[in-house]
């Protein structure tokens, strides 16, 4: 009986050590970015002004080492003029070239928007630069600047005078934007 208690105590100490180390490597990010569109080119049009939108995303990150982190995330993007709603699922990689506590970093998000009745589908590519300002041990604010490419696929229907669909066409557009945002790391 004493052996079982000793083994249990040792096991709990080891589990606590592993759990503490994993908590230091696992963190989450909540980012909000304003998207200033540069152009949108598609099958039917090419727009160069009046494009805007926002991106809100939540990412779970794992520190591979002191400079490199990788994770997966989900988000929502709302793009205007023309209007699209996109729910992207993505991978994110963050590399910090310096070891200081206030550190610049580069990042990239690569993913795909889930298509549904309220969401358009399409490829996502978002590389950029950031700067992290730590406020506490596991809490920081980040400033983000990047390039945002969102490919959008949607269906255009032509109607007759009696409101029946005459023709249906799938359009593919690529929106190029500059993103400026803030983020929280916790």
Strand order of the largest sheet: 1-3-4-5-6-7-8-9
Assign the CATH architecture: Beta Barrel
Number of strands: 9
Provide mean pLDDT, rounded. 84
Give the helices and strands as they follow along the chain: HEEEEEEEEE
Kindly, what is the distance between the CA atoms of the first and last residues, rounded to a whole number of angstroms? 42 Å
Number of individual domains: 1
**Radius of gyration (Å):** 22 Å
What share of the residues does DSSP label as strand, in percent? over 45%
Judging from the principal axes of the Cα atoms, what is the shape? elongated
SS-based class: mainly beta
* Biggest beta sheet summary: 8 strands, antiparallel, barrel
Give the CATH topology: Porin
Structure, described:
The protein has 186 residues and is mainly β. The protein has one domain: Porin (Beta Barrel), CATH 2.40.160.20. Helices cover 13% and strands 67% of the residues. The protein has one helix spanning 2-25; strands at 26-42, 46-47, 52-63, 68-80, 84-95, 103-114, 122-136, 139-159, 165-185. The chain has an eight-stranded antiparallel barrel.
List the helices and strands and how they pair.
Elements lengths: L1 H24 E17 L3 E2 L4 E12 L4 E13 L3 E12 L7 E12 L7 E15 L2 E21 L5 E21 L1
Antiparallel strand pairs: 1-2, 1-3, 1-9, 3-4, 4-5, 5-6, 6-7, 7-8, 8-9
Name the features.
Porin, eight-stranded antiparallel β-barrel, 186 residues, mainly beta, 9 strands
Summarize the structure.
This protein has 186 residues and is mostly beta strands. 13% of the residues lie in helices and 67% in strands.
């Amino acid at each position: 009986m004493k052996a079982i208690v000793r083994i249990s105590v040792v096991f709990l100490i080891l589990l606590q050590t592993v759990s503490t180390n994993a908590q230091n490597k696992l963190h989450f990010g909540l980012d909000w970015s304003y998207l200033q569109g540069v152009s949108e080119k598609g099958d039917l049009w090419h727009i160069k002004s009046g494009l805007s939108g926002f991106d809100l995303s939540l990412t779970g990150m794992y520190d591979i080492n002191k400079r490199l982190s990788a994770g997966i995330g989900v988000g929502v993007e709302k793009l205007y003029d023309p209007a699209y709603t996109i729910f992207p699922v993505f991978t994110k990689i963050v590399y910090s070239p310096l070891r200081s506590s206030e550190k610049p970093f580069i990042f990239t998000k690569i993913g795909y928007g889930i298509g549904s009745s309220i969401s358009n589908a399409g490829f996502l590519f978002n590389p950029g630069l950031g700067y992290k300002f730590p406020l506490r041990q596991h809490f920081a604010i980040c400033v983000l600047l990047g390039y945002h490419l969102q490919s959008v696929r949607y269906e255009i229907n032509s109607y007759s005078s009696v409101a029946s669909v005459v023709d249906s066409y799938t359009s593919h557009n690529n929106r190029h934007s500059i993103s400026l945002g803030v983020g929280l790391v916790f």
